[in-house]
Backbone:
């Protein structure tokens, strides 16, 4: 699908297409269709309206998000403490390991700082990448340019480099600042790290995004002699009770929409 978009020269349409296919747009269209049919076909019209309401309700719950992550996306577990110790021992005295953080968007200008800034999701990933780097001694890499939906502004990697030095006192060794999406994160980063002699990448991104990111990087690394090890983050679950998990909330809507976007990306090969 990425190749098709590139061939047609419509890569920038991807965020628009995703917005049209993801909730709440399909369910809002169902509501409009059902309302139109209520007078001529009352039973069918009300059925479609109820389906639209049910769709918006269910896809706005944390319970639905948890189901998607456990049974559809199958989000991998976090790296355990003993594995971190093993990574530290394996990488000691070697130069073929890298911790690679995937960007997740940037703010072209943050008034409170007076400069560009990473989004909260990118900053969370950068923080975890710095933690892994500190615990293992493995140098850090960051991938992210100007996203397809952003249009212009500083590349995520440039912003991350500044924040890593200023906020974490741990500079980033490798920067990839041309990619615009997950597929390009992989196809741009693998040659960069391969040239630097890297043969083992510890990949950092949010858990819901990891299945698609892992697939993209493993495809890009095929035949390159590079091993991809996943280090998902943002895995903590907010426990509100079994009943409340199935009531619509802002958090539920956000989490479910992210999960559905990842499922759509996996289905379309994005």
Residues:
């Amino acid at each position: 699908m990425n190749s098709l978009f590139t061939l047609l020269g419509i890569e920038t349409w991807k965020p628009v297409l995703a917005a049209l296919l993801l909730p709440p747009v399909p369910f809002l269209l169902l509501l409009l269709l059902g309302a139109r049919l209520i007078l001529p076909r009352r039973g069918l019209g009300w059925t479609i309206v109820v389906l639209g309401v049910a769709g918006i309700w269910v896809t706005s719950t944390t319970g639905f998000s948890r189901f998607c992550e456990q049974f559809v996306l199958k989000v991998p577990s976090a790296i355990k403490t003993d594995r971190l110790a093993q990574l530290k021992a394996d990488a000691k005295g070697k130069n073929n390991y890298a911790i690679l953080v995937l960007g997740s968007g940037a703010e072209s200008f943050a008034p409170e700082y007076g400069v560009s800034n990473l989004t909260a999701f990118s900053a969370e990933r950068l923080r975890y990448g710095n933690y892994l780097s500190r615990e293992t001694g493995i140098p850090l890499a960051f991938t992210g340019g100007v996203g397809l939906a952003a249009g212009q502004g500083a590349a995520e990697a440039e912003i991350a480099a500044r924040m890593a030095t200023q906020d974490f006192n741990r500079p980033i060794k490798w920067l990839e600042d041309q990619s615009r999406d997950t597929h390009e994160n992989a196809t741009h980063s693998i040659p960069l790290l391969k040239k630097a002699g890297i043969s083992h990448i510890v990949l950092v991104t949010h858990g819901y995004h990891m299945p698609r990111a892992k697939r993209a990087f493993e495809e890009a690394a095929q035949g390159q002699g590079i091993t991809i090890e996943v280090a998902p983050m943002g895995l903590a679950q907010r426990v509100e009770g079994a009943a409340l998990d199935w009531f619509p909330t802002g958090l539920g809507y956000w989490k479910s929409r992210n999960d559905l976007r990842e499922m759509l990306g996996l289905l379309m090969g994005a």
